[in-house]
Amino acid sequence: MSARSLLVGAARKATAFAGTVVDVRTTAPEFVLTYDDGPVAGTTDHILSVLAERGGTATFFVLLTRVRADPGLLAALVDAGHEVALHGVDHRDLTTLPLDEVRRRMHDGHAELEDVAGRPVRWYRPPYGHQTYRVWRSIHAAGMTPVLWGPTTWDSRGDVTQDQRVAAALRGARRGTILLAHDGYADAHDGVDDGPAPQVDRVELLTRVLDGYAELGLASRSLGDALTVGSPILEGRFKR
After folding, report:
1. d(CA 194, CA 177)
2. Which of 145, 212, 204 is nearest to 179 (CA)?
């Protein structure tokens, strides 16, 4: 391991007080499945069907732009036993916005999602995973804890194959791993322009990823479910 890697690791551990969940310490045979950028009709509902067949749960970090367009889909997600978390009022990078606006978005977005979901919302995932210390403080002030991830399915990329996505999702897989996936793709409707949406069969990808984790003896759980038997691993991770 390089000297720089050692320094980065030491810095993250030293700033664990800044409370960003990056992993779960657990002895249970499970990993944490998370979805961003939805809910989206025609995708999220099919993902819910796959998870129901497998007996798995997940945490869905939703965009309010999407929830407002289809509140019934959010209700279906909740009724199926999954966990709702906030990904943003829209998908704009919080580190590019004035701090007063960030605070307003955290407070108002949290209140709106709890009202629509009809239950407490504990977690927040900053768009693109970007946060500064001031953004982190605004998230906590609104009553939420930020959550990042370990492996990713690469399903927001159009320059890789499905086999490569599955391999990426399984890279470093172990108990308590937080896996990032997407049930939507943010666009102008969500305040951003990240280019054309990749052509991804997200349902087939989920099936293959669940099969891969099952071969390792691991089942999918929401973050809240995983923390009923495990404990969060916290680090300070901030955009430079």
Report:
1. 27
2. 212
Say which DSSP state 198 is in. Answer: P
Sign of the torsion angle spanned by Cα atoms 27, 218, 82, 143: positive
Lowest mean pLDDT among 2-6, 209-213, 235-239: 2-6
DSSP state of 127: G
Residue 47 DSSP SS3: helix
Count CB atoms within 10 A of the CB of residue 140. 16
Contact (CB, 8 A) for 134 and 157 = no
Q: In the numeric block, which tokens belong to residue 223?
A: 């973050």
Across the range 153-168, mean pLDDT stands at 97
pTM > 0.90: yes
| Count of Cβ atoms closer than 10 Å to residue 229 Cβ | 12
Percent of the chain clearing pLDDT 70 (strictly above): 92
Distances in whole angstroms, Cα of residue 171 to Cα of each of 165, 168, 202 = 10, 5, 18
All domains in the chain, ordered by first residue: 21-235 (3.20.20.370)
- Residue 133 to residue 147: CA distance in whole angstroms: 14
Q: How do the residues of the chain divide into helix, strand and coil, expressed in percent and rounded to 5?
A: 45, 20, 40
Q: Which residue type occupies 183? A: D
Q: Rounded distance, CA 4 to CA 63, Å? A: 35
d(CA 111, CA 107): 6
